Amino acid sequence: MRGRAMQIRTASASRGMYRPKNYLTTPGGVAYVVLAVAILLVIAMEPRHVSTMVDQDNYIEYFRTTTWDWFVSSFKSRTSTLAFVISTVTEEFGWRAWVIAVNALGFAPETGVRLTVVLLNAAVFVALLETRRPLFGLLLWAIIPMALATVGTFQIRQGLAFGIAMLFTLRYQRPLTGWVLACFVHTTFAIPAILLFTIRFCGDRRRLAFISASVMSFVLVSSAGFLFRNFGGRRVDEYSGYHNDFTIKLVILLLIYVTASVIYLYSEWKNRPEAKATVWTELCTMHIVLTVYLVLAFLLFPFGKGRVWYCIPLLLPFIVPHIRFRNAFSIWYVTGIMLVLCAEVVKSYYEGGYVFLIGN
């Protein structure tokens, strides 16, 4: 498995080092930089009032209260070594470490929140440069309701975790490292990380990867109740009402979105049936199997949805721009996905989903 991972990184090293640099010298690259800088300026300078910004008070409280003593007290209150190791994920030690680091630099809590927002979006923007059409991906990131308007502005703990995951996956060609690190920032990334590990373990055996990861999805859903009760920590109360909006409509929407990964894999494997696995094929496979997990969760344990479902639309700005349009079917199908997405954008706009970015 280690040798195959080295092959993946070696095969893509030249593209990862030179392609973004070359792209930025083109008109599309200039437009990308202008749009990216404009977005960063808006989210950095826009007022973030506690009365109007969702979760703003919670994040300010994180920066005010999290100190090194929090880690010491967590270690001292451990019931066992195993429980402490598990708590590094369930209590999101990575996020706490980031907060402590920012505080150590002397930033005020409000500034720390802004710095986090800018950093997570910058990480996403760097990762988007690894796609075939970065400007298209950036536009998708800007308009998808769960992307910039949600995890990119106010649910910043999950946004930071996602930015780390995609930066390591695409820029550094280390997907498993990225998604495991993301677990320590936001707990919900443990599910895709476990699925990605299962896929990586299967190597280039595509069918085995799908079957094994799907079985793992069933195991995770089946054991979700036990895991939440015993290791959920404060997440049990926080996510207690999140399954209320887990409707058949949302499941259908996720199934439509994930077909982008199906198209990508079909396009790649049809023309190169013996091609080795890449970070892109692993990412798309995980995207599909994660949807299997969510469908199983809908049927067996809706509480297991949490915010895991965010990963399905959040991956669209990366996967859709990377699809090779080899035939009319791919073009028309992606167009259909974009039409569904546009309907969701309009719906979110009228529900006030973009108030922070564009006002009332």
UniProtKB/TrEMBL annotation:
<feature type="transmembrane region" description="Helical">
    <location>
        <begin position="330"/>
        <end position="350"/>
    </location>
</feature>
<protein>
    <recommendedName>
        <fullName>EpsG family protein</fullName>
    </recommendedName>
</protein>
<feature type="transmembrane region" description="Helical">
    <location>
        <begin position="176"/>
        <end position="196"/>
    </location>
</feature>
<feature type="transmembrane region" description="Helical">
    <location>
        <begin position="279"/>
        <end position="301"/>
    </location>
</feature>
<feature type="transmembrane region" description="Helical">
    <location>
        <begin position="248"/>
        <end position="267"/>
    </location>
</feature>
<keyword id="KW-0812">Transmembrane</keyword>
<keyword id="KW-0472">Membrane</keyword>
<feature type="transmembrane region" description="Helical">
    <location>
        <begin position="208"/>
        <end position="228"/>
    </location>
</feature>
<feature type="transmembrane region" description="Helical">
    <location>
        <begin position="136"/>
        <end position="156"/>
    </location>
</feature>
<feature type="transmembrane region" description="Helical">
    <location>
        <begin position="112"/>
        <end position="129"/>
    </location>
</feature>
<feature type="transmembrane region" description="Helical">
    <location>
        <begin position="21"/>
        <end position="45"/>
    </location>
</feature>
<keyword id="KW-1133">Transmembrane helix</keyword>
<feature type="transmembrane region" description="Helical">
    <location>
        <begin position="307"/>
        <end position="323"/>
    </location>
</feature>
